[in-house]
Every structure is written in C-alpha cells, then in structure tokens.
Records
---
Amino acid sequence: MPVSPETLSAARQDLAELVAIPSVSARGEALDACAAKVALLLGKAGFKTEIHLGDVGPFVVGETGDGPFTLVIYNHYDVQPEDPVDLWTAPPFELSERDGRLYGRGSADDKGEFVSRLAGWRDFRAAHPEPLPYKLIWIVEGEEEIGSPSLTRFLEKRFPDLKADLCWWEFGEVDKSGRPIVLMGFKGILAVELECRTARADLHSSLGAIFDNPLWRLAAAITSLRDASGRILIDGFYDDVVQPDAKSLELVASPPFPLEDLQAETGGRRLLQGVDGKNYYKHINLEPCLNVNGFHGGYGGEGAKTVLPCTGMAKLDFRLVPGQHPMHIADLLRKHFDAKGFDDISIKILDAEVIGVRSDPSHFAVDLGAALLEKWFGRPAVIQPSSAASGLAYPFVHQLGATLFGAGLTHHGAMLHSPDENILISHFENMIGFSADFFAALCDAVRTNRGNAGDA
Ligand SMILES: [Zn+2]
C-alpha cells in the first residue's frame, strides 16, 4: 500500500517545523528548542519521553514497548552551520520544494531521516495499536555535528545495563543508481600532528651542508610508515585487526559499482600498487589506511628563498578497522619513530575517539530490512560491510551489543553540510513506507521467535 497523501503531508509539516529551528551545534544555537520539539513529536507518537543534559545540546529519549528484542534508533537534531549562506538558492532554514526535492539545512542530515522514520512509525501504530512486542528506545542527540562529545558517557549513565539487539543508525544512503544501501560498519580514526624542530631559528641554506633539515626528517619519517601498496609498516599495526566474517568477505568480492566509475567521478588517477577492479572494494571496506593530510614548513611563496627552515609540521590520519584502538596505534607510532631514530619528531593526538565497528551481515534483521528496502525503492539493496569513513557507532555496538543497521534516505546529491542540502521527495516517501513495514516486520519476527536475543 503506498504512503497516503495525509501521511506524507504530515511528515512534510514536521520536517518544515524542524528545519525552521536553526539548531546549529557548532554555535550552540536553538538546541533546547529543537530538543523540545523532538520530544513533543515522539510524545505525540506514543513514546514516553525524557530530556537529558549533554555538554552542549540535550539528549532526547523516547521509549515504548517491551519484549525479548530491543531496537535502538539513533538520530540527531543538530545541524551543520549554514555558511556560506549566499550559495543557498533559497533560505537554509525554510523547507522549500524544487524539482521533486525538499531543500533546507537538516532536510537530509538528520532531520529528514528522523521525520521519515517517525512518520512510518505513526502509520505502523495506526494499523497495529496493540502493545509493541519489543522494546524500542529512540535516542536523538544534539551534538553529532560536533563529534558527539557526551554520547558515550550519556549511554553509560542512562543505560548502564542495557543490551540491545539492533541499532538503526542515524542515516543510510541511496546510491547514484537508486539502490538503497545497508551499512554494517564504520572505520575508526586516529588523527595526529607531527612536528620536528632542528634549530632555534631559520638558517641560511648553505648550512644544509652540516645541519639536518626538519622537512627532510619529516619526509623520511613519513616514508618509513607505508609501502607503495598502502600497507602500513609500523610494527604490530595489524596485530589486533579483527578478521572479517565470511559473509563480509563474500560481499566485498562483488563490488556494487566498477572502480572506473569512482575514478571518473573523482578524477583519482594513481592507484596504490596492487589495487585493481577486483579488490578495490575490499580495500575501501575492510582495510586500514594512512593518509598524509598536510605537510608544512619553510618557504612556499613566490620565487626562491634559500632557507634552511627550523621547523616542519605534518598532519596524518589513520582510518582504522575493528580491533585497532586509536590510542594503541598512537603508541605504536611513537615506538616506530623512536626505533627508526626519529625521536625528535613529536606526535600530538588530534582525534582518537572513534573506534571502528563492523556488525555481522547475517543478522536476521539485515535480510528483513534489505527485502523491505527492495520493495520500497524498487532496486535490490546493497549490503555494505563497512563505510570507508568513520562514525561513532562503537558505544552502540560494543557497549550495548547491538548489530548496526544503517538504512535511510540520503542520496548521492544530498549536499550534506553544504548549501542546498536536499532530499528527494520520492525517497522521503519510500523511507516512510519502509519504516512502517520494518517496525511491523520486527513484530512478526519477535512473535515467531526469530527476534530472540542470540538467535541471529
Ligand atoms: Zn552531518
């Protein structure tokens, strides 16, 4: 049954009201107002709601139902700043429609995701008013866009003993060809800044005959970290890597799109040694990598300046896989530099909060969700073992023990964090329909015992 015009219009109204609240966490703006609105919407939809203080913006929790299975839904109501505002076609905090799309800051990330699920929930409840046979906990935070500084602590404090089965992640994607993607994991991240100082002040470059140069030092140190295939040469780096399960390996063996597409789209030319059209998707999903983000020092202006700089700096990030703890990798990096004679290079840790996670794609809810996504989007769902990027799913997956399930309406041209952020109205509708069906399908699964904890 298609989504009714009444359901769609109520969802659009909710989205318009939420987009109109400029809940920019980077500025700490309108977060209380937005949290109150979210709590009101959840309360009206039958949830018992609570608001808890966070470091910057409050957490909203909605709870309902009871049973042997626990679904946690995670969303966020905060948004990125709207700047540069003059690049928006229409005002960022007014939901506007053009060419089958809805535009506005947060239309996709993450208010549109939240509203579509909630609209689906209301339709599901209208058809199934009996008590929900599973526990549903909906957590909507207001600090996601600034790195969720209090999420882990909040979950520990508010849900110290909670064991959950499934965590419906705050977003999901629809690829360029219209296929819905089910995301099962994220990489972790360690970002560091390296610095090397070799003299009190910049020197005449003629002294390069006897004194070492911080940029040479940094270049040599960085070169020692990786080979041409991208394999990281730090002792012990791979020791704790959790080996992928058979299903994940099977999934990455048949990439959902050809490498050439990605090359054409990005203009990326040079592949790492050994990367080809068969294995690139495995690298993206399951392999850690090391990037040099920036390399600075000395003179970069016009013309020549024969200087021997006294300092140099570089920034690196490691995208880590499950099992690799960012702080442990930072220790190994220190040991590597010391062992290679680079003890004059300092390491400042910029980001070590996000630990990689990857859930088992053979969980029953994944197949169930994938089938319903196919029903609503008209294309078979792609199950992706891990994003190439990082997300703070660790507390949900490890602390609460939930299987990650990322499904949503964020399309290829959604312009997240940019001017003209948007969603396709057709996807909005599909996600509402999907959500209603998914809530219902979980009831059936629980009633037929498939949803019992441990029966995955
Ligand atoms: Zn975002």
Note: The mean pLDDT is 96.
---
Amino acid sequence: MALTVGITFDLKQSYPKELKSSADADCELDSMETIAAIAAALERNRNRVIKIGNAREVIKFIEKIKPDIVFNISEGILGRNREAQIPAILEAYQIPYTGSDPLTLSLCLDKSMAKKVISYSNIPTPDFKKISEAEEIQELHEMEINFPLFIKPCYEGSSKGIRLDSKIKNISELKKKTFELLATYRQPVLIEEYLPGSEYTVGILGTKKPEVLGIMEVKSTSKSEEELIYSYEIKKDWENRVQYICPPPISPQLESAIKKVAIDSFKALECRDVARVDIRLDKYGTPNFLEINPLPGLMPGYSDLYIMAKSVGMDYDVLINKILFSAIERYPHLRINDTRNLMT
Ligand SMILES: Nc1ncnc2c1ncn2[C@@H]1O[C@H](COP(=O)(O)OP(=O)(O)OP(=O)(O)O)[C@@H](O)[C@H]1O
Ligand SMILES: [Mg+2]
C-alpha cells in the first residue's frame, strides 16, 4: 500500500526580513530544488507526496491533510528549539515523522548541551565554556584551556557566525570576537579548545543498529593554509577552496576510531534515522566530537550525504527512501500496511 508522505521544510525565501541580523541569516534553510528532489525520490517509490512547508503551515493544514508520515527537514527560524517545533506539533497529533525527536533535536542544536552528554559518555570532545553575557568574559582567566581557542555561536549551523578569524590567539581577540558574536547572533557563544588536526564528517543511517554511510575528509585546497577552518566564507566558495575526499586514505585504526566516535555520539544523543557527525583530530591524532547534525543537508548533487551515498554506489532515491524506511520501522501500523521493499 502506498503512503501519503508530507514534507516539512523552511525555505530560504521565507526567512523573515525583520529578523535578518547578519548576511548569513538564512544560510541553514533549504531551496525549493531540494524539496522537489526529495518529493520526486519519494514518489518514485510509490508514495503520494504533499509539500506542507513550515511550522505555521503545519498548524494550518495538518488536520486537513492527515499524512501517514511526515518527512521532516525543517530547520526552524529562531531559538535553540527551532528544529524541535514541527516534530513536537506532530507528536501532539500523533503523526509519525522521520528523524530525531524534539528532545534530541534541541539537545544537538545547542552545542554546549550536546557536549555535556558527549563528555558524560566518555567520547573525546574539546574542553569548552558557554558565555551568555559579555560580563562573563572576566571569568575567562579561570579557564583551564589554553590558546589557541575556537569561538562560535552556540546554536547555529552551516557555519553561521564562523569566519576565518574564529580561531583565537589571545585575550584581546577573544574579547572582541565574543562581543561581536553576542551582539550579532543574539545567543550564547561557545568557546572551546582549538583542534589542529584533519577534519572528517561522518554520515549515519538507521536507528537501532545505526550504520556509517561514509566518512569524508574535508581538506583545504590552499597550500599556505595548512589547517582548514571550514568557515562561512569557505563553505560559500567550496568549489575553489576545499576538496572532499570520500573515502579518505586513512589507516584502518583511524577509520575505526572515527567510526566509533560517530556511532557512539549518535547513540549517546539518541538520534534516529539519519545524522552527520563532524569530527576533528586533536594534537595527539585522536578523533574528537565537534558537533552532530540530526537534520543534515540533503541537497542532491552537493550535500555531504549525497557524496557519501554516491561513493558506495547508492543513488539519491535510495538514500531518501532509506531514511523513510528507517522511520517506518518505529510505527507498527505503517509497517504492516507497507508491503513495498526498499528500492535498490
Ligand atoms: N574546536 C574547534 N577547533 C578547530 N576547528 C573548529 C572547532 N570548532 C569548529 N571548527 C571549525 O569550524 C567549522 C564549523 O564548525 P561547526 O561544525 O561547529 O559549525 P556548524 O555551523 O554547526 O557546521 P554545519 O555546517 O556542519 O552545520 C568546523 O567544520 C571546523 O572546521
Ligand atoms: Mg559542522
């Protein structure tokens, strides 16, 4: 039996103009091309698809539409609970949906909260401090962490608020940048130890037995700039400034250490169906957790997950339907009615 699948999302063009406090304000949000590609992938696997839209549209239409399940990629607009809003509404109406639940989505979005759970789970992650008010900067001399440091907004994505000067070498740079980020992004900042090593991002699919889809190294193309800072400037000009190596030429030991950090993080934060974990090596070569994205980009052709899937011969339609099937596993009434096999 075919399912009616609603898609929930936030489009770049719907970002409220009055809330734009920076040039990168809408960079996390999606384009209509991505929504159309997800819809086409679901339709090719015999689903009926309804493009619902953002949280306000969900509230308006959900009782009329009554989808069997929602494919959720909504990033939300404001605050650290923005990604949790649609899943929370869907739970109120007992409508199944793909991906992580509201608690996990909020927990992962606030990097300092995620890092507390990660540290408790004995997964390596840089020491950190969350600064909510400018006055707290006076307490910084008590920090046991040493320069260089890295500074970023506490709950953003797509390198919003991360620039080439986010690596901090001394106290005056730290003060200046802390004030700037607090004023521009209107949320706490996260200050953490700078990790000088190589950078990897790891795609994960599944829930009970999550599996690594692929490991991708992100490397600077510049010869002088040895250490990558995968900032907003670099992500915008990615074609010229970074190379993506999937799979990377690493030892079996490093590969299994990276996979362990990724899978352990996914499980510790109780993610579901899909996520992407960003990992960087410390000065000893140990993989550390940087952050996890339970709503990773799914743009066809360019997104990290697309590249990882391609590297193992999995086409985009299969990637999208695997996320849906992983979610269906949670809902017995959908599993019984759904006699289709995952397209291969
Ligand atoms: N502690 C750190 N040490 C060194 N580099 C860091 C550190 N934290 C972040 N970075 C650099 O900044 C980049 C962006 O950081 P992070 O992944 O936390 O931001 P994001 O905006 O959530 O990213 P995404 O686009 O994956 O959502 C990282 O990919 C890395 O290059
Ligand atoms: Mg990241």
Note: The chain has a mean pLDDT of 93.
---
Amino acid sequence: MKVVLIGYGNVGKEIEKVLLENNISVELIVKSSGIYSKHSKIDTNDNFANYLDAESELLISVPSRGDGSEMLDYYLKPLEIGACIVTCEKAVLAHHWGLVQKFRGQIRYSATVGGNSGILPAVSNYQGKIEEIKAVINGTLNYMSDAFANKRKESDIFRDVMTFGFTDPGSNSLQDVFQNELRDISYKTAILANHSNLYDKITPNDLSIEPYRDNTRCAVILNKQRITAGFLAFEDTSWFPTGVNNCLYVNGVKVAEGPGAGGRITAERMFKDLQELQD
Ligand SMILES: NC(=O)c1ccc[n+]([C@@H]2O[C@H](COP(=O)([O-])OP(=O)(O)OC[C@H]3O[C@@H](n4cnc5c(N)ncnc54)[C@H](OP(=O)(O)O)[C@@H]3O)[C@@H](O)[C@H]2O)c1
C-alpha cells in the first residue's frame, strides 16, 4: 500500500497523525506548492499521477471550491489507473457524481457529510424503504440558528464562531459565514441526495437553498417529491441537536447523531473509510 495525502491543512495533518498511530506511513504529500516526500519537495504537483499505481491509496482533503473542476484531476487519473480514494472534499463529488457511480468500488466519502456522525453510512445501512430523510448537516449553521433563536447578539455569535474555529478563518462578518456555510449545505445536500438513491442525479445547481430568516432553523428534508434545504420554519425544534452536532432522521426516526466537523474527527472517519476499502 502506497499512501498519498492530497492536501495538508487542518484535516491532512490530522490524517497523517491517525495513520502514524496505526503504524501506516505516508509516502507522498501533495500540496499546492508541489509534491513532497519526507517533507522535501521532489516535483511539481501537476506530475503527481506519475507517482501512482493501482496499489496507491489517496486521502484527499483539499479545499471544496466552485464546481470542483479545479481539483477534478486529483480524482480522475488515479481512479482510471485503479488507485483508491478516500475524500472529505465536497465540490467534486457534489458536481461530478458520475465518478462515484463509475468507480464505486474505489472511492469512499463518508466524511463529506456529517463529519464523524456516520450520516452517510446510516443511510447505506438503513433496512427498509426510505420515504423521507430529515437532517442537520452543517454544525456551524445549527449553532448559529440556535443562538439566534436564543436572542444572542450577532457580534457575540460571530466572535464564538471565529474563536472556536467553526468556520473558514477568512470570514470577516456573519454574512461571509452565512455565504460560505450555505455553499457547504448545497454541496452536502447534493451528495446526501445522490447517496440516498431517491433521485436520478442532483448537482448543487439543481438546488435552491433557503437563506436565513427569523425563527428558522437550518436543515435538509428529502423525499421523492422534493428537496428542501437551508433555513426552514419548524413548529417543533426539539429534534435539533445541540451545538455543532449533526443528525439524521429516516422516516421520522433518529438513526445518527454526532460531531459534524473538526480536523481530528474528520481524519478518524476517513481512516474508517480507508479500512473499509482494504477489507
Ligand atoms: N475541517 C473540517 O472539519 C472538515 C470536515 C469535513 C470536510 N472538510 C473538507 O476538508 C477539506 C479540507 O479542510 P481543511 O479544514 O483541512 O482545510 P485547510 O486547512 O484549508 O486545508 C486544505 C489544504 O489544501 C491545500 N491545497 C489548496 N489547494 C491545493 C491544491 N491545488 N493541491 C494540493 N493542495 C492544495 C492547502 O494548502 P497549500 O495551498 O499550502 O497547499 C491547505 O493546506 C475541505 O474540502 C473541507 O470542505 C473539512
């Protein structure tokens, strides 16, 4: 097994630690500045496919951006030569679901929705026909909408979100946070919708994500008729998880709940995916 990390930020560094704890060493690290072996640069990153073969296992944690085209090559070439991929990056999967359909045996992505809360595995393992999925899939927006419901001041909410690292460190205002996190919701909703097999093929462009309004909570509801996502009005909010947790209800019954984000927990979920690929 030849382990290659693509992306070496919050999640990538934690993946390396989790692998080392399990006596697995990383052969190569691909950053935007080049390919590194034992932390020395050996090549430019556009040559990365030359270092791969069918025994390679790639762990991808590059930024989720735009329609995924910027990072698509990190998936296409490796999958075509028979390598395996574990990813937590969302834009490529959300916009190019055909990759998952074509290379199902070589790709795992359970960290893309719900961090380590096991939302996607719970959908796969559900016994029976899925009529409705109701989920909280963005911990930051869950935290924020709960704080708004409790009439906390905007400046305090923004301070918390930044101090606790719940969102992109580049955000300058709550509006930035909303914008980034609503894009995240559109990626995750598309992945969850496609993973559930309730629809033919959905991309974020097919979705309309409801912006924040007073007295709403951030959730996703999927049934055969429609997909509703973003800030929605609920009479009963008692089913929402606390803090930055995520949760999943199938046909009205809770089947998963847990932490939705964080470098370490994301890395741990990716390690579970890697083990599943090797079984
Ligand atoms: N953090 C979480 O809790 C969490 C949870 C679930 C999913 N995710 C997803 O995981 C991914 C990574 O998140 P993160 O928190 O680790 O972000 P991050 O800290 O910003 O790390 C991303 C890394 O990717 C590198 N990178 C950027 N462009 C690249 C390119 N073209 N080729 C190779 N490397 C490139 C960046 O560094 P250089 O430019 O220096 O190489 C950076 O170190 C995102 O897609 C995010 O949506 C994150």
Note: The first helix runs from residue 10 to 21.
---
Amino acid sequence: MRTVLRGIESKTVYPAKEQRYRGENGELLEVVSDLTSFNRSPAAWKEHFDEQKEKPAFIRYKDVLLPDLPEKCITSLSEGDTPLYPATKAMRDYFGVEKLELKHEGMNPTLSFKDRGMVAGVSWARFIGADVVACASTGDTSAAMAAYAACAGIKAVVLLPEGNISFEQYSQPIAAGAITLGLDTDFDGCMELIQKITAKHRGIYLLNSMNSFRIEGQKAIGIEALHQRNWQVPDWFIIPVGNAGNVSALAKGIRELYELGIINRLPRIAGVQTKAASPLYNSYKNGWAGLVPITAKKTKASAIQIGNPVSFKKAVRELKAFNGVVEAASEEEIMDAKAVVDASGISICPNSATAMAGLRKLAKAGIIRKTDSVVAILTAHGAKFSQATVEYHRAANRFANKPKALRADVAAIEKALGL
Ligand SMILES: Cc1ncc(COP(=O)(O)O)c(C=O)c1O
C-alpha cells in the first residue's frame, strides 16, 4: 500500500484500510500517499493526466487521489470535467478583478462539488467492504452520498436539520432511496449525533468530510482547474467555507502538485463564510486563534450554516501554508453577488455566491489586486435554491428582475412590454 492515515498533530500512522475517522487521541486524520513511489518526473505526470483525458476525472487523477483504490471498486456517475468559465465584463466590473474565472462545481451529477468527494468515499466504502454509509448534511452531502450509494447498491442513511435545507436538496436523498431522517436540531447537532451513531455501530461507514478518503476526492477540483489552465497557477483561489473540509482539500491537492513539481508556485487561498456562521473568520481576525464554536444563525447560504466546523484545524494549517485570508459576507452582499453571476447565465447557489461576495470585498480592500488572476470555486447549482432566487427577485433588491403577474390578454401583455 502506498497510502496510510496519519494524525495531523501527532503524526501517528494507521493502516489505510482501518475504519477510523480520528486518531487514538481524538485528532483529525489525513490521507498520506507516497506519490514519489510512482517515479514520475513532472513532465511524466502531466503526460499521464493528458493521456487519461477521456476517462472520468476521478480516474484521470486517481494516482494523486487514492492510488491504492482498485478501479473495479469505483462507482462513478461521470462527475467532474466541470466548466471553467471566463467572467463576463459585468462580473469583472462588479467583483473588481480583471482576470476572473469561475469553476462551476454545480455542473456535477447531483449539482454540487460533493460528488467529487462521494465518488471517492463510496468507492472506498466498497473497497473496505462497508455496506451501509451515513452522513449528516446541510443538503448537498446527503444528495451526493445517496446518489452514489444507490449507484453502488449500498444502503444510505442521512441526518438532516429539518426545515433548514432547501426543498430541492431535501428531495434528492429521498428520490435516491436513502433513509432520510429530518431532525429537530441544526447541522452541528446532526453532526454530533452521526459521530455517536457511527462510533457505536461499526457497520455504518461515516462519509462526512472527517472521512479523509472522501476529502481526497475533492482535491480533484483544484487539480482539474489547474489542468484546464495548462498548469498555470492563478494568484488566488477563492472558495466558500462551512465545515472547512473543502478548503482543506483544495489546498492539499494543490500543495501535493507543488511538491511533485507539477506546478512551480503556490496560489493564495481566500476562504469566505457567511456572517451568520463565521467561526473561521473570527479565528483569522484574531490571529488564527483557536476555534470558538458558535450557534449558526439562519442564512440563505444554508449549506454553510455551520457553527462548529469539524475540519477547522486542517483548514487553518492549510490556509497558513498558502498565505491565506478569510472574509465574511452579509446576506445582502451574498444575494447581490448571486444575482450578478446568475444574470450572466451561470446559475449559482447562495453558498457559491458567498465566495463571490467575499471576492468583491477583498478586491475593494486591495487585498486582492485588480490585476490579480482569480479562480472562484462555485460549489453548487442555483437550481437547488429556487426559493431564495425567486424571493430575491420578487422583493425590492438591488438587482431584482421582478416578475409580473398579468391578466391573460393581449392588451395587458402589450402594456407590460411597453408596446
Ligand atoms: C454548496 C456548498 N458550498 C460550500 C460548502 C462548504 O464546504 P465545507 O463544508 O467543506 O467547508 C458546502 C458544504 O458544506 C456546500 O454544500
């Protein structure tokens, strides 16, 4: 085996196939794979990825994601190969940067980046022989896990904060046949319970982001973006943050490419939270002080309504290594940013818009310079959040495109169109 699980603080090593989510001392774990054992030069790595172009992204990048996973265990729904859109002029003007690209992870099979994690997590579950998988979710994790488990023929159990996720997200695990439990608590409450359940019932395999194998799959987002840019590193990646797993995955993937010599410098990373749930931002503002969990407030960016981010320590370590920053955006800033991106024809969710709102603030503050190149990670599709979108446009908001209800006749339509 090339891969082990390792404690992020004590560096204690555990066998990769052991079903474990934390070290003996309770610390977070990470997957460490000896990638030098492939004996490839940077040019050979690039050639290898190019040769795999026709394969699903997870298989193309498998050697740097889960090199020990046998191909026969992979359950893929053809996730990945998401678009890297150049920003329109309207977006460049509004967000304040001249070189902006948008990596739209909402264009995955279940409409979020979580598919990148679940192709890895569910495939790994098959590899170690698990036949029940489970997660707590703010909506997207459960949608992805349920779909991949259904595809693999594995039973899925999801815990959701009842009333705190969108209707579309709620429909996804139900439709895919998962046992769907809506609990009268918030996400952090669901997370605590699923950890207790999976610790007690070892036959249930936990697929939240504290499962380090799932996180390895999410590294593909940054790796694929860099591949699409012909390995030219932008000055910045910008990404929304909730439980802090995805920002950790993004950084880990990029760092490993750098260590292999595939890229020749590191970008900076900006994580953005909603002001309704900003414990990582609070830590950053206080000189990377320790985590002070909060009770997250209700927010349109409900997928990142998380007050006690499980991957906090990993995220801080990575953000420090990338000279990273953290920003927080208000509800108004988030929904205005969403409207600007949506108006270009690229439909995004409020969580993705949180990253965009943060970008605007960081550009305004001069932390991201106008001439810096920026890749923004859009994490889910706007189609999952139709209620938030319609409510925004029906009300007196800055970029509202107010729909009109009319009498069904020609004269009324002519009047409305000014004809
Ligand atoms: C759409 C969306 N964006 C961003 C995030 C944040 O990712 P993470 O929780 O890994 O920080 C999540 C999940 O929590 C999400 O569903």
Note: The chain has a mean pLDDT of 97.
